């Protein structure tokens, strides 16, 4: 017999016959705590998240998702939804409830003539790039290819192509959604447009997306991309120069400044290994000869250890940062949107980066703007289109015994940087301990209230609450 807690005060008991009945309607894998593969199935990217669901339902198709939602409602089960499990907050898991696992649903279809891709929610950006780049096409995804398409898209999504083509959710044409009632609906500009408005940035609050339809754009297959690494002694001058350079950069250029510990890579001088450094990472996704001229002012400034910018396949560049964020470590992030990189913000970043407590810590200032600003702020749920940069303090470490120290450094750094914030935050970068006020700040008061109304319509009982939750009004 399985016992499942849905709230602190409510117990739902499911006997073996109930589970067997569910299996007759479900084509995928139902994994229970007694099964040999349970601990693998409940593992996600952020090893800090250690939750034990009562059932994991690995879906193979849309009908499986529908059946899982209906089963959860029928038995009053707490629900979590897993795409790729890459979210830092660990919302892909829950204790004692049902995990609706979409990770087996990886189908992708590309129409190169119409420049459209349809993808299932278990795919990641490496999967999508593999299919679209065969035709010299891409959609703006993230900066790590292991990131799942679902969470990134539903939270907005930005990456190397964002200045050229917008947020990831800006490229959505339509989605198939399983509602809180377990029904299949389509959402687009013409069908259920209110739901489509909320899906684009509102996360998994309104249903489970089982199919994403993206616009595709000409990209590569080669881009001019790579990183330039500088000693920390030059960080202040380099960041000031980068800030001025970015202010007039063309849309074809995606870039960010990153503080990190120099890894023992063969292209980095050995005497630099293990030391804090500043890197500028760039991706010019236009004409390569023009890109050389565009990047010339950046590459000729300062005295870097390494200039590794060169023509390379877009797929290679979009997976180049994967080794720095491997699955199975402890992760804790803090983030803010910035209108600018102020002088005092530069000095604050340098002072904390020089004292990084983990060699796996990364602090990035990612340049936004460009095509993001082509859309009206109220056109969809994704917010803060006026921000010029995202600050991401992404701390990772191996030993759980170090959790307190690493989290404290991250929190102190974030507190010191808050005076430079726009007041907004990127919803996909919120950690598990970020409260409701931070969720509201991801959207602003006006949008948040509109999202509450949408939640009241599509999920009034808050079936989908393992996310950066928009709470219904009742």
Offer a concise description of the structure.
The protein has 474 residues and is α+β, with helices and mostly antiparallel strands. The chain has helices at residues 16-25, 38-41, 62-74, 125-132, 149-154, 162-165, 193-199, 235-247, 288-299, 314-318, 343-353, 403-417, 436-441, 445-458, and strands spanning 2-7, 10-14, 29-31, 55-58, 79-82, 98-101, 108-111, 116-119, 137-138, 172-178, 184-188, 208-215, 217-218, 222-231, 253-261, 276-284, 306-307, 310-313, 330-338, 362-367, 389-397. The chain has 14 helices and 21 strands.
What does this molecule look like?
With 474 residues, this protein is an alpha+beta fold. It folds into 3 domains: 2-101, Uridine Diphospho-n-acetylenolpyruvylglucosamine Reductase, domain 2 (2-Layer Sandwich), CATH 3.30.43.10; 108-218 and 448-458, Uridine Diphospho-n-acetylenolpyruvylglucosamine Reductase, domain 3 (2-Layer Sandwich); 222-429, 3-Layer(aba) Sandwich (Vanillyl-alcohol Oxidase, Chain A, domain 3), CATH 3.40.462.20. 27% of the residues lie in helices and 24% in strands. The chain is built from 14 helices and 21 strands. The strands form 5 sheets. Strands 14, 15, 16, 17, 18, 19, 20 and 21 form an 8-stranded antiparallel beta sheet that branches. A hairpin with a 2-residue loop joins strand 1 and strand 2 (10-14). Helix 8 (235-247) crosses helix 11 and helix 11 packs antiparallel against helix 12. Residues 1-12 have low confidence and may be disordered.
